[in-house]
Amino acid sequence: MVRIGNPGGNQYGGGPHQQQPYGQPGMYQQQYPGGPMPPHQPPRRSKLKPVLGWIGVVVGGVLATVAGSYIVDEINKKNDKGDKPVAENGIAFPDGYTPPPGVAFSDGAKFRASGDTGTWPDACDMLSDKEIQNAIPDSSIVGGRQGRKTGKIPRNYECTVNIKLPNLADPATPAKLTMTIKAIGDAGPVKDMYEKAKSEAAPFTGFEDLANKLFVQSAFRNDTTKLNLFKQGTKPDSPAYYVVIDVKADTKDSAGGPETKDAWTKKVGPALVRVLNIKMTDD
């Protein structure tokens, strides 16, 4: 041991005690030859702990955000059960058509009908104003809805909605959305009616087979602006639906030139189809 205050020698009569250096060659070697040792220093508070604390807070916040997003996503998937975009299965969306949003906005009540026309929904109730305006940005509903009935069907089997758009060629002539119920009931007869209409439309100009491409089981376009839709439920007694949506408007492009008659059909048709497909339920 080094005796403090005896720089000339040690207790055994020898020369001054030399403390062996520590550390590796090249490192700073602290020595106190013959002199007093430095006063005791209190342990320094580590700056690493606060940093680690902040890192923990940030990481925890990120994890909480990710977890929250995952929960919301799972809720949306549950609410939109069975209506995933077919593009996820490797089927490309049709050229010229505007894909609808991943989760469609559905506002009105769903409907389940059968071959009994007394259970059919009113065509004017199939798509609400909010659903139409959400599917068609910058649109507004003009006037009331015009329904059509027949003696065999107690409610409107067809309904037309007038819509105002910012890019109408003639602002005084609104766009028109017409929904027509062709058939609802047992899958066999309804499917036969749909396939017959499809085969009859195929030879004409403007026909386009959109089977499994508009987020429905089957669809085709005829007469330029009409989208024919077919849906059958998965249960043994599920009804089948055959509905036609006619979306018609004379619009102009960003340069002010006239667009083709089917331009608006391709822009807004898929979003309207997606909402209607969700509401036609087999629950």
Molecular structure report:
The structure is a single chain. The chain is α+β, with helices and mostly antiparallel strands and 283 residues long. Helix content is 25%, strand content 20%. It is built from 4 helices and 7 strands. The chain has helices spanning 48-79, 129-135, 187-201, 263-279; strands at residues 140-150, 153-164, 175-185, 208-209, 218-222, 226-232, 240-248. The chain has a 7-stranded antiparallel sheet. The longest helix is centred in the N-terminal third of the chain and has 32 residues, at 48-79. The model is unreliable at 1-17, 19-30 and 66-86 (pLDDT under 50).
Structural class: alpha+beta
Radius of gyration in whole Å, from Cα? 38 Å
The biggest sheet amounts to:
7 strands, antiparallel
Q: What is the approximate shape?
A: globular
Q: Report how far the terminal alpha carbons are from each other.
A: 91 Å
Counted by DSSP, the helix tally is 4
The share of residues in helices is 25-40%
Order of helices and strands: HHEEEHEEEEH
**Spatial strand sequence of the major β-sheet:** 1-2-3-7-6-5-4
